[in-house]
Amino acid sequence: MPRIWSDKPEIHAAFITREIEPKGLHFTSVTNLPDESAEYKALESNRRIVAEYLSHPNIGLCMGKQIHGKRVAYVRKAGLSEATDGLVTDQPGLAVGVLVADCAAVLFADPVNKIVGAVHSGWRGAVSGILQEAVRQMEKIGAEPDLMQVYISPCISQSSFEVGEEVASQFSERHVDRSRKKPHVDLRGFILQELIKAGISNEVIIRDEKCTMTHPETLHSHRRDGAKSGRMMGIIYLSD
Fold first, then answer.
1. From 206's CA, which of 106, 121, 147, 160 has a CA 20 to 30 Å away?
2. Which residue segments constitute the domains of the chain, with CATH numbers given?
């Protein structure tokens, strides 16, 4: 497994793409399922994929029922968190994960204070302030922004992210390209700006520049594939 922070043995983080699918493995949403039983079956299915991928058979997994909001929850045990697009923890061996397919998975790590977080950041969450909220929630349990490192996963690029004016107007003009027939938004650039505003140094933010729309062999894209699109997972945990 290629590690995101290979020089930090206490931190284990990955962005799991379509490489798992030749084995017949697919991540399952834990949102909008018919009942609690189905939700927990989906969670366990995802946990097994993560356990195999990370070579950690007994790992616990916590996921949020993502709604493109700004809520970030502190979690201490495996399970599901209602209406939550971000999770932070200081519990060793507990993985926190988010599913994405055009939105960005943003992973946070304070390796000194041993606190980690995972955020699902689409345009709605980003403009609502979820990234700064994640930093605040990590600070509440002892993290320090100047010690944090951050990873931004592949997401939809500005050249592919055509939007209407109702979306474009929610971004600063520096992140909107109006040279074409319709506006195009730089989601990755906006996420980077929000992280820097929250006190994270630009030098410790890792950015994967791949566009989900233009890499169908490895990345899912809801905008490209519609309802049949799968999902990738951003996952992070502390050594136990």
1. 160
2. 11-238 (3.60.140.10)
For residue 44, give the amino acid letter.
Answer: E
179-214 per-position pLDDT tens digit: 999 999 999 999 999 999 999 999 999 999 999 999
- DSSP code, position 155: B
Rounded-to-integer distance, Cα 118 and Cα 103, Å: 13
Contact 162, 178 (CB under 8 A): no
Structure-token match 């050249």, residue found: 159
Q: Where would I find the H helices in the chain?
A: 36-54, 123-128, 130-140, 165-168, 187-197, 222-225
Instruction: Calculate the CA dihedral of residues 87, 81, 155, 8 and round it to 10 degrees.
Output: 30
Phi (first) and psi of residue 199, to 5 degrees: 105, 10
Q: Angle CA(77)–CA(79)–CA(84) in degrees, nearest 5?
A: 100
Dist CA 120 CA 50 (whole Å): 17
* Alpha helices (H) in 63-157, listed in sequence order: 123-128, 130-140
The pLDDT of residue 1:
46
